[in-house]
């Protein structure tokens, strides 16, 4: 009887496994219940992993950076990425373990729209003020879109940290000619889609302060020439923070 019982269990086990394989699921890393229309991660990611799925994750947690230390979007899941994932998890009340699994992905799916933009920002908020969309800048339209998307995710994190009140983008990408027309700095990060000028429900200094741990190396705000009616944030390689009325 016992032998028969085991044999039956064995059959059931094999049947379950083959169903799992047919469904494309992995035994170790259960797939999320529903596919996401932007991107669905197929496996748990943690320190030591690398690749394009890590890069996609980094884009989405980059706003949860350490103070003054932006997350490198390099496709390598190191301690910096793990720490950002932990802050993301903490910020949304999830289990904090620095590992990107179904719960973390589920939160990302809740936040991202079908075009991969975060819930509270859209490409249309970042197009050039002269009607040229994302063209006419100092880099390709495709690079501009990539840069804008990355900044949007940083802003989504900032927005959540600031209590979910709206942030308004008064200027995002600028074509070179529009940048010249509005008196922007030559070679401004706006002409790459890497900058956003903000106003909103918060004080300009609160925006500037929050940006310091949201992955922005470029912060220009109150007290800096021409920046008393908005806070400028950008993604650049070295730190330039200039908001003397704030910090
Ligand atoms: Zn600006």
TrEMBL record:
Signal peptide (from-to): 1-23
InterPro entries: Peptidase_M15A_C (IPR013230), Peptidoglycan-bd-like (IPR002477), PGBD-like_sf (IPR036365), PGBDSf (IPR036366), Zn_M74/Hedgehog-like (IPR009045)
Protein name in the entry: Zinc D-Ala-D-Ala carboxypeptidase
GO molecular function: carboxypeptidase activity
Domain of life of the native organism: Bacteria
Source organism per UniProt: Actinopolyspora alba
Keywords: Carboxypeptidase, Hydrolase, Protease, Signal
Domain Peptidoglycan binding-like: start-end pairs: 50-106
Coiled-coil ranges per UniProt: none
One family name in Pfam for this protein: Peptidase_M15_3
Domain Peptidase M15A C-terminal span(s) in chain numbering: 120-234
Keyword ATP-binding: no
């Amino acid at each position: 009887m016992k032998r028969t019982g085991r044999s039956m269990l064995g059959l059931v086990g094999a049947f379950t496994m083959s169903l799992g394989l047919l469904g494309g699921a992995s035994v170790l890393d259960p797939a999320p219940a529903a596919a996401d229309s932007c991107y669905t991660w197929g496996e748990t990611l943690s320190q030591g992993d690398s690749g394009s799925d890590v890069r996609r994750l980094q884009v989405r947690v980059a706003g949860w950076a350490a103070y003054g230390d932006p997350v490198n979007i390099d496709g390598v899941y190191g301690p910096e990425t793990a720490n950002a994932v932990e802050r993301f998890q903490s910020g949304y009340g999830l289990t904090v373990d620095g590992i990107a699994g179904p719960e973390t992905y589920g939160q990302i799916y809740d936040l991202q729209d079908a075009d991969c933009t975060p819930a509270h920002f859209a490409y249309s908020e970042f197009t050039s003020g002269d009607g040229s969309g994302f063209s006419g800048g100092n880099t390709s339209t495709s690079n501009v879109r990539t840069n804008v998307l990355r900044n949007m995710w940083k802003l989504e994190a900032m927005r959540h940290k600031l209590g979910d009140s709206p942030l308004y983008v008064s200027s995002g990408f600028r074509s070179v000619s529009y940048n010249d027309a509005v008196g922007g700095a030559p070679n401004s990060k706006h002409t790459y889609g890497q900058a956003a000028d903000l106003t909103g429900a918060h004080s300009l200094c609160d925006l500037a302060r929050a940006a310091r741990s949201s992955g922005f190396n470029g912060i220009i705000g109150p007290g800096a020439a021409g920046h008393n009616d908005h806070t400028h944030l950008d993604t650049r390689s070295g730190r330039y923070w200039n908001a003397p009325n704030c910090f």
